[in-house]
Amino acid sequence: MSSQSTTSDAAPGTGADGAPGPQEAQAPAPAPAGRPRRGTASGAVRAGAKLLHVLLLPALLIGVYAYASANSDSYYTPTPDLIAAAFAELWFSERFFADVLPSLARLATGFALAALLGVGLGVLLGLSARVRALAEPVLEFLRAIPPPVLVPLMILLAGVNDSMKVLVIVSGCVWPILLNTVEGVRAVDPVLADTARCYGIHGTTRLRVLVLRLASPQIMAGLRQALALAIILMVISEMFASSSGLGFAIVQFQRTFAIPEMWAGMVLLGLVGFVLSALFELVEGRALGWYRGLRAANRGE
Amino acid sequence: MLKVTGLQKIYNGGANAVEAVRDLTFELGEGELVCLVGPSGCGKTTLLKCIAGLMPPTSGTVELAGQAVTAPPPDMAVVFQEYGRSLFAWMSVRDNVELPLKEKKVPKGRRAELVAESLEAVGLTRFADSYPWQLSGGMQQRVAIARAVAYEPQVLLMDEPFAAVDAQTRADLEDLIRQLWKRLGVTVLFVTHDIDEAVYLGERVLVLSSSPTVVQDDITVDLPVERDQLTTRRDERFTELRARVYAQIQQAKNGTGAAAPAAAH
Fold first, then answer.
1. Is the pLDDT confidence value at B155 over 90?
2. Which CATH number fits domain B2-75+154-264: 3.60.15.10, 3.40.50.720, 3.40.47.10, 3.40.50.300?
3. CATH number for the domain harbouring residue A270
4. Mean pLDDT, rounded, for B120-131
């Protein structure tokens, strides 16, 4: 990272750096807050425009599908209004508690366990070259096993229950988190490491204030990949030997030719993924605000 | 206060072992401000890392107040050249300055005092809540200086701290260092490759030879304590001293002076 030269000309008010003059008082201006807030009226217009911008393509796609399905006599592609009706009927009923909540609970548990395990092991491996050398071949092998093939094994080991499904999620999600954490932890800047040593920052404080924070952008990247995987694995694990959950519900609808319901399940899964990703974005924005600012400063924005 | 004896550093590489520092011996009295200057690639950073306890020397010793330095000593603060990489980007300016004090178990009230004083001293009081990357390069280096000052070290090591800032900022920061040194009475070892800077800042200038490094010359800077960018740099004595250091460096580069003057030690 050749940052020191870039930072110096990137930051505003660099020119004359005497006692910070009035022009430098504006230095902290390019804070991460990127939303312009001027008049409320024009703000509302802008928000409306943004909403339109976001909804335009989905609306268009739904329109195209509506047209195509209306002109098709296939039983398997119901029109959007049928899907919407099925959606409302299905998910605003007790099925929400029977299928959606259990699925989300498994997803959350699996993801949380994978995060804990991945970050914990990742820190250990990242900090110790010896442990890394010892564990790497095994980890590479385990990583290469596609997680869905673990389902039959997990059924045997854990039985047909929630732990099986959680285990499947964990076994797939842990890898991107683990590998990204290892990389992030290994990449601790030597100057920063020296600085910490000089100022007596050791042990757990070093881990907490230096290593984990410095690795957090990469850890977050790993978590993001893992989240997408977790949703996939949640559905897959529920498709086998299961009596509840979204994956189970969708397969059941398909087998009983409840086609609009099957579509409604898919739509719900899409929405779940969308909402989770938005939530993740929110959390990431808070945790990595400094990182985004730093990068923007380095790019000279 | 700081005593370096027979310091040698060889970077191991089997047959390609590189002797970066050969035999360095010098001493810094309490409250002295000494500049170390040498041709580029003469092992200044290696030397500084050995003194800071960040790197074990191959042979020789470093002593701080009579204690052998084997790990970073608690009475020493270091300001690195790469300010952008030595500050914690996820912490505000205040937290950056305060963190080492927390580790040192300084009580909370005293901590707040030290942070406020040191930020005041470097003129960054108003930027305490900013993040380092929101500041200009010179201001970031001020944060690093404030952090070092708040730490209340006996010895302050500075490794080419102004090499990456622009000329005007640099002049301001030089004056800041002189001013802090006078006020705090701290012992300062200032490493630089800039001859003017060395003479302007130092009470003494140690000239290093090119690698493998020895001390080539030890020059006392007999300029008045009060220095000024304009008048001091125009001073005849300043010009003479600069010429002398310059000549020594040239000699060092050509490798002619490495043997003779170092024998004085």
1. yes
2. 3.40.50.300
3. 1.10.3720.10
4. 93
Phi, psi of B217 (to 5 degrees): -155, 150
Are the C-beta atoms of A76 and A257 separated by less than 8 Å?
A: no
> Cβ of B111 under 8 Å from any chain A Cβ?
no
For chain A, what is the mean pLDDT? Answer: 84
CA distance B106 to B114: 10
Cα separation, B185 vs A23, in Å, equals 33
Q: Which two tokens stand for residue A168?
A: 């499947």
B81 in reach of chain A (CB within 8 A): yes
CB count in 10 Å sphere of residue B12? 8
A117-140: pLDDT as tens digits: 999 999 999 999 899 999 989 988
Tokens of B232: 């001091």
**Contact predicate A174/A182, CB 8 Å:** no
Query: What is each CA distance from A127 to A39, A199, A200, A264, in whole angstroms?
Result: 51, 20, 18, 47
Does A17 sit within 8 Å of B137, measured CB to CB?
Answer: yes
* DSSP single-letter state for residue A76: T
The yes-or-no verdict on residue B246 having pLDDT over 60 is yes
Q: Are strands B2-11 and B59-64 parallel, antiparallel or unpaired?
A: antiparallel
What's the CA gap between A73 and A75, in Å, rounded? 6
CATH 3.40.50.300 domain extents, chain B: 2-75+154-264
Query: How far is B230 from B65, CA to CA, in rounded Å?
Result: 36
* Residue A27 to residue B127, Cβ atoms within 8 A: yes
Any long-range contacts for B196-199 (C-beta under 8 Å, 24+ apart)? B196/B233, B196/B242, B197/B35, B197/B162, B197/B170, B198/B35, B198/B36, B198/B37, B198/B245, B199/B35, B199/B223, B199/B238, B199/B241, B199/B242, B199/B245
A43 touches chain B (CB under 8 A): no
Between A113 and B24, name the one with better pLDDT: A113
Of chain A, the percentage scoring pLDDT greater than 90 comes to: 51
Cα distances (angstroms) measured from residue A100 to each of A111, A142, A235, A265, A272: 16, 30, 11, 10, 10
**How many domains are contained in chain A?**
1
B146 has pLDDT over 80: yes
Chain B within 8 Å of A197 (Cβ-Cβ)?
Answer: yes
Residue A155 lies in a domain: yes
Contact B133 A200 (CB under 8 A): no
Q: Is residue A239 one of the residues assigned to a domain? A: yes
The pLDDT assigned to B256 comes to 55
Alpha helices in B53-136 (DSSP H): 83-86, 93-103, 108-121
User: Amino acid identity, residue B255?
Assistant: G
Length of chain B, please?
Answer: 265
Q: What is the rounded radius of gyration, in angstroms, for the C-alpha atoms of chain A? A: 25
- Expressed as residue numbers, the domain containing A227 is 96-299
Please, what is the average pLDDT of chain B?
88
Residue with tokens 């929101």: B134
